[in-house]
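User: quick one, fold this
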Amino acid sequence: EGVSITPAQAREPMGMAKLEHIKAVLRMPAVQEKWQTHKGQPGGDADADRMYEKFLPLQKRVLVDHSKVIPGAVETAQWCAEHDIQVGGTTGYTRELMEIVLPLAAEQGYQPQVSLAAEDAPAGRPAPWMIFEIAKQFGVYPLTHCVKVDDTIVGIEVGRDAGCWTVGVTKSGNEVGLSEAEVTAMPPAELEERVARATAKFQANGAHFVIESVAEIPSVVKQINQLLAK
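Assistant:
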């Protein structure tokens, strides 16, 4: 639409259903100010709907080249299977988008038992309905027997609202906001500072645990099992 936004603004609502994500960015005061200057009127839901329709085909093209499984995810899923822990996924993507992502993930060895998209529940994130639906399909209750792992603040809020244990992921995730190559290239002190800021943000938003990598999930699950056993 000709209105520039920053990567930080684009990332802030990450985890929401994508239409709601676009609306959230458009509602930001700084973005509204730029929109008003460029368009001559405030941005509203009709503008978000139009951008969403443009976004979907673009996202489909991009996903083919940007669906590399995060290091540690395959090994962690295998560990869960070995310990009779079921793995389900929730996303702000649509089912149409996930039909691209899921086969690519499976080719790399990651295949959750259930994967729900935004339209698979009465409402997408930040509502907790997808978590409830996965728990129902798995036959798991109470929700304190479920662990919600996420790299977004929205995901942690959803997990808390659902009554799950919540785990925020920093270094490989949205809050640090770096690619694998950028993490490798960044000076250690600067990277440590970014991870520390992300950790503090997750903790401030109620995460029960904060880890740098999904490879650490088994150790967190062991800690939760110890707490539940008391």
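User: anything notable?
Assistant: The longest strand covers residues 165-169.
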